[in-house]
């Protein structure tokens, strides 16, 4: 491959005390690709995402974004790299002291210094894009249902038109229909922005819908990485067990049996 | 400690969020007025009553005005206001920032290219440090007024003499030392609130622990620093 990948992760390690969470993760995400990382609870998906974002400081390894090493960047430099990112948090993480439109416009006003009127116009546009009307924009996040909060959070993640968008369990806690609505919105938004997307989830229906490529993380390493079409013929027992949701197989959950 | 240094550094480096600083000043300063006012009013009143019953034993009743004004400005107004504000504001800061931490709102700030220190910590610390001296100055006046009410209306002092006695032995340094204390206490209260909130982990229980820790550590630090600052000002 001649082209530099959008995100290149090499030998990424992270431990919390004696517990090793990431044990040498290698991952490439090409520009414009939508990669979904699947894995069980506690397999290190969230930590991987937060390490790439720099919210958690990795212990060792390398994270390159557009060929630039970002591990260890701080302050202004970090903020400059963060401008390329948008992130949809698992719980939405909307600022409850601000109105819905102010949440969506936050990255524009604080991060980029966009004028308030202009930012408000863009915020309403993005809210419309996720199917929320102007009436919602003046409510506070606490007044919204879970699905609506997720959509506001999505609008906020795409408001600054980032080059890279991360989705942390976008469908968790939603009913299957709303989950599918969110999946459709994610696909549409990513396509429209031409952005590179990284999603972590354990919802296989969501993964199949969003992904071009799928990677499976297990015990702190990527154990399989390939196009979504090949996931049913991965030839990997761990992946097979996971996508079919079987309790028996090579992955043993830490459950005390009577 | 590192947290305090980072916070102070961000206090002096731009950019500043003036609107947020203003809102925090209103929150910490103006809305604490009733609490601080009530506390200092009754402290001044009780001080006049107590010192009267004590001083009457050796006919030194005329010293009451001096006792009230000196104790209020030097000690009681800053310490009591500090403790009350620690309970009111320190807890609120820790709970708010702690909740933002456990619901990933602080991480979200980072991903939106906003430094959480500048956006959350600095406005609270600046507002705390600036507003507590103003609160204490107001408290000084209210406390002296409380003493005046008791002395004049309950103990039958001559109003003019009481005011003259109040002013006579009051020195500039008495008030200034109280205000310096207030500024330090204000800084400590908001710093502890922010620090414990920022470090909180693990849901509602974590936020509860952060709130308790913020109030307890701020209160203890206030008492320790009260001793240290008094030593610096009045020890010869």
Task: Tag the structure with descriptive keywords.
heterodimer, A: 258 residues, alpha/beta, 6-stranded mixed sheet, 4-stranded antiparallel sheet, 9 helices, globular, B: 236 residues, 84% helix, 0% strand, AAA+_ATPase (chain A), ABC_transporter-like_CS (chain A), ATP-binding (chain A), ATP binding (chain A), nucleotide-binding (chain A)
Distance between the termini of chain B: 30 Å
Question: So how many helices of chain A?
Answer: 9
Helix content of chain A: 25-40%
Largest sheet data of chain B = none
SSE order of chain A, as H and E? EEEHEEHEHHHHEHEHEEH
| Class based on secondary structure composition and strand pairing of chain A | alpha/beta
The H/E string of chain B reads HHHHHHHHH
Number of strands of chain A: 10
Helical content of chain B, roughly?
Answer: over 70%
Widest beta sheet: strand line-up of chain A: 6-7-8-3-9-10
Which structural class should the secondary elements of chain B be placed in? mainly alpha
Note the main sheet of chain A.
Answer: 6 strands, mixed
| Shape annotation of chain B | elongated
Radius of gyration of chain B: 20 Å
Nearest-integer average pLDDT of chain A = 83
How many strand elements of chain B? 0
Rg of chain A (C-alpha, Å): 19 Å
The DSSP helix count of chain B reads 9
Strand content of chain B: under 5%
From the spread of the alpha carbons, the general shape of chain A counts as: globular
Low-pLDDT parts of chain A are none
